[in-house]
Every structure is written in C-alpha cells, then in structure tokens.
Amino acid sequence: MKKLFVLGFGLCLVMAFTSCKSSESAYKKAYEKAKQNELAEAANNQEAVVETAPVVEAAPVVQTPAPVSPAPVREEKVELVSGDGLKAFSVVCGSFGVKANADGLKSTLDGQGYNAKVVYNAERNMYRVIVASFDTREEAAAARDAFKAKYPNRQDFQGSWLLYRVY
C-alpha cells in the first residue's frame, strides 16, 4: 500500500511539472514583436525626416559664459573647526553628524587640490564641509556650479548648497 501511494504521488508530480508550460516564452515573443514594430516605425520616421529636411546653413558658434543659476542661501551661525579663512558666503558639499566623517571628506578634497574647511553648527549639531569661501553671493554661486559640473556623477556633490555665515 505504501509503495502504491509513493508511486501515485510521484506520477502526480511528474504530470504537474510536465503539463505546465512557462508563460515566459509568450511574454518574450510579444516583447520582441513590439520591439521590432517600434524599430520599424523609428526607421520609417527617420527616412521621412531625411527626405523632407530642409538645408540650413550653419551659423558661427559664439560661446557665452554659462548663466549662474539662482542660488538659495542658508543662513547659519557656524564656527570654524579646521581649515583657514572662512568668508561670508561658502559652498557646502557635505554635512555630517560625526566629525570624523567630515574630516575624511575634507582630506579627500584637500587631496584633489581644494582648500576645504570644516565648520560646526551648534544649533543643529552638524559639521559642514566647505569647498570654497567667498565675499559675494555671485562668486559663491559660480563656484558651486563649477564644482557640481566637475563631479557630475557624484550625487552627494550635486546637492551642494550655499551658506551665509551669521555672526
């Protein structure tokens, strides 16, 4: 009786695994067909554009300086922890709750040629890493935009902001 039960159970398992077809192949076929249709439409549209495109003479290229984006400024009372020469407007590229993390980023930036500084905001208990410091807001905004452009793949640097030092 036990052998008959095991044999029946095994037969049920074999039938269960062999009778079910994966629906993955149907999805794959539909995807490939849609992709081919999309490529064919793009090729047809491209041919139409090429045939009807008017001839345009190129104008001389004139380079203009990139506009400085409007820069919101945070006002904070901070004190200089490490580095030298903190001015009114600064470009902040990192904020940390732990001083060792701020010092690590400062060392990295110093190694890349910056004169980074670490300041401390006692109200928020945060250490700010400053890349550069300026007397005017416009200079700081331009430096922030240049810094962000230098590191387009660093998301942490893309969040750089301006700090106005309150005394």
How are the SSEs ordered, and which strands pair?
Elements: H1 2-19, H2 24-52, E1 73-76, E2 79-82, E3 89-96, H3 99-111, E4 117-121, E5 126-134, H4 137-150, H5 155-158, E6 161-165
Relative helix content: 40-55%
Order of helices and strands: HHEEEHEEHHE
The amount of beta strand, in percent, is 15-25%
Number of strands: 6
The CATH topology of the domain at 73-165 is given as: Alpha-Beta Plaits
Distance between the termini: 91 Å
- Helix and strand composition category: alpha+beta
Characterize the main sheet: 6 strands, mixed
Tally of DSSP helical segments = 5
Radius of gyration: 31 Å
Spell out the CATH superfamily of the domain at 73-165.
Sporulation related repeat
Précis, in short:
This protein has helices at 2-19, 24-52, 99-111, 137-150, 155-158; strands at residues 73-76, 79-82, 89-96, 117-121, 126-134, 161-165.
Q: Could you explain how this protein is built, in words?
A:
This protein is of the alpha+beta class and 167 residues long. It has a domain of 93 residues: 2-Layer Sandwich (Alpha-Beta Plaits). 47% of the residues lie in helices and 21% in strands. The protein has a six-stranded mixed beta sheet with strand order 1-6-3-5-4-2. It is flat and about 90 Å long. The mean pLDDT is 82.
Name a few traits of the molecule.
167 residues; flat; single chain; six-stranded mixed β-sheet; 5 helices; Alpha-Beta Plaits; alpha+beta
